[in-house]
Amino acid sequence: MKDKIEKTVDLNAPIERVWRALTDYREFGEWFRVALERPFAEGEKTEGNITYPGHEHMRLEAMIKTMDTNKLFAYTWCPVADETGNAPLGGIETLVEFKLQPIHGGTRLQIIESGFSAIPEEKLRLDALRTNTGGWDIQVENIAAHVAS
Asked: Which fold, 4-148?
């Protein structure tokens, strides 16, 4: 059973620039398309409305787990929502990790979302994997464009 999604992208930006795009809540909101209500802080929850067209009724709620400067930013969140934008899984969450590594000419960013095996219903699990895989494909392009500008 597949438990995680992994994406890797080489970004044409210094690691400090990528770190800021990931961890400054306003910058994160620009490329991720969410209007977050408060800064990220380790051990605290942040949330806000999705601003991606057609998904404005949905909210993102993230519990910040790790902020290891220029290395690792991680949070947990509910990987699926119903048509009202509510999380129907009763507290089941996945872990999203952004791992940064300096490379010649920029930064290698690895995005890992894991914990899908905790979703008990197979259809929901497979839908979450499919939807979030497509979502991360879009977000990789979004952050690449954001840090290049």
From this structure: Alpha-D-Glucose-1,6-Bisphosphate; Chain A, domain 4 (3.30.530)
**How would DSSP label each residue in 45-85?**
EEEEEE-STT-TT-EEEEEEEEEETTTEEEEEE-S---TTS
* DSSP H/E element including 16: helix 15-23
| 77/128 Cα distance (integer angstroms) | 12
Instruction: Supply the Cα-derived Rg of the chain in whole angstroms.
Output: 15
Tens digits of pLDDT across the chain (149 residues): 689 999 999 999 999 999 999 999 999 999 999 999 999 999 999 999 999 888 888 888 899 999 999 999 999 998 766 555 555 556 789 999 999 999 999 999 999 999 999 888 888 889 889 999 999 999 999 999 999 97
For residue 128, give the 3-state DSSP assignment.
helix
Question: Is the entire prediction scored with pTM above 0.85?
Answer: yes
**What distance in Å separates the CA atoms of residue 82 and residue 96, rounded to the nearest whole number?**
20
